Structure prediction request, 145 residues.
Amino acid sequence: MAFKVQVVFDCRDPESLSKFYAEAIGYRLQEPPSGYASWEGWLRDHHIPESEWNSASAIVDPEGRGPRIYFQRMDTPKPGKNRLHIDINASGGMKVPLDERKRQVAIEAARLVRIGAVKDHEVDEGTGEYCVVMLDPEGNEFCIQ
Prediction:
């Protein structure tokens, strides 16, 4: 039996990072609980201090297929390279000719740079595999392939 999973990011700014990844992967911010027009209203009604309002955020797949991605504020710095990362499959996979995949990946990398990512480096080892390693606004690695 398979379990539903949630992917969790420890980060400095949950609101900003959740908005970045929602735009990057076509997710949307999670709606506030039933009966509330906004998260701020829910937080206020539950007497959460305003200083804690950006302690967490979540994004969801609008089609309900992918995992929920949760962003939680952590004050500790990122220690080094991620042990887990997201791959954005933008090129159509190995059945697409390499030159076309590279073109599609370049288009997606440029779009993500416009919303706050940084291009780190390309991985092209001559085996037909190709990806671009990117950094999100907090320096977490992710790949476009």
